[in-house]
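Study this pair:
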Amino acid sequence: MTEVSVLKDLQATHLIALQPHTQIHFYQKGDVVMTEGDRLSPQLYTLIQGTLRLTRIGTSGKETLLRTLLPNEIFAAPALFGDAIAPATVTATIESQVLTIERAALLQQIRQTPELAFRILEIYNQRLQQMHQTIHGLVSESAIVRLANLLQRHANKSGTVRVVQGEQLNLKLSHYQIARSIGISYEECVRLLSQIKAIVFYQRGGKIIIIDRETLDAIAAGTIDLKTLVQNREARS
């Protein structure tokens, strides 16, 4: 349990006390961890291995990708603080492991270690701020800015590895995942990635390489637009 960020500073005696109330659940690629609207057991959910996809179905019946969870992230907040109804459908994208801790046992540890509550609330607050930024982006920012911000966020969050062409994201993202994350169609996603291929290289299978990080950051900040990029590229050709 020491790899779980909210528990990493707990004393060994507290971790031992939590063990009888802790379970590890194993999922294969495509397995559903929970379905939107499910009644959840009162517990903390933490992804400790693999990746999970969070999606919701809108009133139109369209599925929207909310986010991709990486190891050491907690999720399903209503199971711990709320109405215990799953806010989204959670699906394993690869073999994954989820650790759960019973709420009553966790609250007991919070009474003994109050800073544990602040850590959990800090994580949920960061999640809320990210959601607000996403909503603001969907309303006010162009698709290319949202795309650049998404790639920026995943590069910072999941990390990159240096390759010949530039920085390769450790996380693979399909056209579908990208499109659903920034509120555009699959076709528009393909078109945008094609237009910035000198900056971001997308390879079949979801491999993404950032070739020009400086320009990508400028797009994300809104200091350079797609029209200018296209004009510059045409001028050089």
Q: What stands out?
A: The two ends are 55 Å apart (CA to CA). Residues 70 and 168 are 17 Å apart (CA to CA). The mean pLDDT is 83. Helices lie at 12-18, 103-112, 115-140, 143-158, 175-182, 186-195, 213-221, 226-236.
